[in-house]
Amino acid sequence: MSAYQDDLNAMAQLRKAQGGKWDNISPEYVARMKAQNRFKTGLDIARYTAGIMRRDMAEYDADASQYTQSLGCWHGFIGQQKMLAVKRHHGSTKKRYLYLSGWMVAALRSEFGPLPDQSMHEKTSVPALIEELYTFLRQADARELGHLFHELDDARAKGDEIAVRTVQARIDNFETHVVPIIADIDAGFGNEEATYLLAKKMIEAGACCIQIENQVSDAKQCGHQAGKVTIPHEDFLAKLNAVRYAFLELGVDDGVIVARTDSLGAGLTQKVPVSKEPGDLAYQYNSFLETTPVASATDVQEGDMVIKLDGELRKPVRLPNGLYKFKANTGVDRVVLDCVTSLKNGADLLWIETEKPHVGQIAEMVDAIRQQVPDAKLVYNNSPSFNWTLNFRQQVFDAWEQEGKDVSAYDRAKLMSAEYDDTELAAVADEWTRNFQRDASRDAGIFHHLITLPTYHTAALSTDDLAKGYFGEEGMLAYVAGVQRQEIRKGLACVKHQDMAGSNIGDDHKEYFSGEGALKAGGKDNTMNQFG
Q1: 346-360 pLDDT, tens per residue?
Q2: Separation CA 455–CA 316 (nearest Å)
Q3: At what angle do helices 27-35 and 125-157 cross, to 10 degrees?
Q4: What b-and-e string marks burial along 435-463, b requiring 16 or more CB atoms within 10 Å of the CB?
Q5: Would you state the pLDDT for residue 217?
Q6: What gap in Å lies between CA 239 and CA 244, rounded to an integer?
Q7: Is residue 71 within a helix (H) or strand (E), and if so which, with residue range?
Q8: Which alpha helices (H) appear in 158-232, and where do they start and end?
């Protein structure tokens, strides 16, 4: 028996027990409303989606072609439309997630207005966006199920039992639009207690997966900007513990933590940790510092710090702003240490922020990590901060040059130029780009591919196209031909925007509550009917 039928039968028994007082309540309508509101709380969502992620991670471990993907969404409506599109075009939401980007929260959701990605936005805006995204995804469920209920009623009215059974099966096997969200907590917005408190709010809003980075919280920079400053491992592990405690306290026992390292592009640290014995984490962290030897007191200036490394007194190089420098060309080694340490201390997934999308570069680091943690796997940022066209054209150029192929027709520094768009090199580069996610998941341990802020760019591009035409010679045709007609031709549900915003759901509820006396917004006079 289906959950829908179970709810209907249970409600019928409950109504009967009220001795006539609930005779105006329809058990079927209650069953429908319960089906349309499967997830009662954010914690229900977090527990459900954590299970999805854990199963997906196990499937990836068994078969690297089973990677997962997401797009960053800055508004609930954007997330909703994304998952509607995924379901419509691909038939299922399986292995498709949402990504909540701290960059987009800062740029688009702060009450201060647009901000850079430096943890200056209100921390409460992060759980608020998680809650908003899930509100819109749950509404997508309610809308789609509402249409199925009307199909069921029509089939019953026609006495078509085959259609009744078919629609009932679609209701019973309905796939929700609610999917995992990988949520960016930046560097924790403060100390470990602040991290714990914010993580709790994010989990209560529905987050089953929290991504945290090893930058200094009050000096946090976008992963693709300069001036990044990392924290010692002990401090980072305290924040990992804080997130895990938040998951466990709230009963999301299989919550997922993504430990991000920015060490590849970070050349500075704010703090020199205290080493208790040679070889411990603090020792390893300090061994990467750029230092100068101290032979006598004359080598030490007023206010300098001196540490003992491998039996020698050395002075860490300190900049005028008080920060300490790492030695050049230590980024890869620091990344490997960061990742191994995080995985051995409670992290589930890794995020290595790189400066370019290069399978070989990522694989080199992952191979080194897997020597110590064999099942290590990554969440990877397919970032719009990369010039993908130029990067892959240059990668093809370099590969051809190494093979001895004649590349004299190409200027490597100018490969972004449109003059190369129709060349063999450009075609090969596009194919490498097309296959990047498959190749990187197979060869470089990437479990999840995300694009942090794609919908920021798509909103800008589509708005630019519309504004160009509408305020120009095309006038109204710019909207009609470029937007509405495309929605109709491509079957986008959003063309009926009243329905998408919940008008039909509201009409159904009015009928449930008021019966024949319901004043509905739908009907023959609703212009939405012009769209069929």
Answers
A1: 999 999 999 999 999
A2: 44
A3: 140
A4: ebbeebbbebbbbbbbbbbbbbeeeeeee
A5: 73
A6: 9
A7: strand 68-72
A8: 161-172, 192-205
Which residues, listed in sequence order, are joined to residue 215 by a DSSP beta bridge? 230
pLDDT of residue 412: 97
3-state secondary structure 316-383: ECECCCCCEEECCCCHHHHHHHHHHHHHCCCCCEEEECCCCCCHHHHHHHHHHHHCCCCCCCEEEECC
Which residues partner with 71 through β-bridges? 98, 451
Answer for the pair 346, 255: CB distance below 8 angstroms, yes or no. Answer: no
Q: Mind listing the pLDDT tens digit for each residue in 505-524? A: 888 898 898 888 778 777 66
**106: nearest Cα among 196, 182, 218, 186:** 186
The whole-number pLDDT of residue 531 equals: 66
Helix (H, G, I), strand (E, B) or coil at 57: helix
**To which H or E segment does residue 181 belong?**
strand 181-184
Asked if residue 102 lies in contact with residue 129, where contact means CB atoms within 8 angstroms, the answer is no
How many whole angstroms separate alpha carbon 362 and alpha carbon 445? 9
73 is catalytic: no
Give the per-residue pLDDT at 460. 96
Residue 522 backbone class (left: φ over 0; alpha: ψ -120 to 50; beta: rest): beta
Which residues is 312 bridged to in the sheet?
A: 309
- What count of other Cβ atoms lies within 10 Å of the Cβ of residue 74? 22
Q: How many residues does the chain have?
A: 532
State residue 234's pLDDT score: 95
Residue appearing with tokens 């030897």: 293
Q: How far apart are CA 510 and CA 380, in angstroms?
A: 47
Which of the following is catalytic: 73, 208, 209, 222?
222
Best CA proximity match to 181, nearest among 118, 129, 110: 129
At 118 the pLDDT is 83
User: How much is the CA Rg of the chain, to the nearest whole Å?
Assistant: 28
For residues 445 and 343, the answer to whether their CB atoms sit within 8 Å is no
Determine the residue type at 436: F
144 three-class SS: helix
Distance CA 361, CA 113 (A): 37
Distance CA 43, CA 246 (A): 12
Secondary structure (3-state) at 83: helix
* Residue 71, phi then psi, degrees to nearest 5: -125, 145
Residues 6+ apart with CB under 8 A from 442: 64, 65
- Under a CB-based contact definition with an 8 Å cutoff, are residues 68 and 41 in contact? no
Q: Could you tell me which residues are beta bridge partners of residue 99? A: 72, 182
Q: 0.90 cut: is pTM over it? A: yes
Query: Maximum Cα–Cα distance for the chain, whole Å?
Result: 99
Residues of the chain short of pLDDT 50, as ranges, are none
CB atoms within 10 A of CB 201: 19
Instruction: Determine the Cα–Cα distance for residues 86 and 332; give it in Å rounded to an integer.
Output: 36
Report how far Cα 282 is from the mean position of its chain's Cα atoms: 32
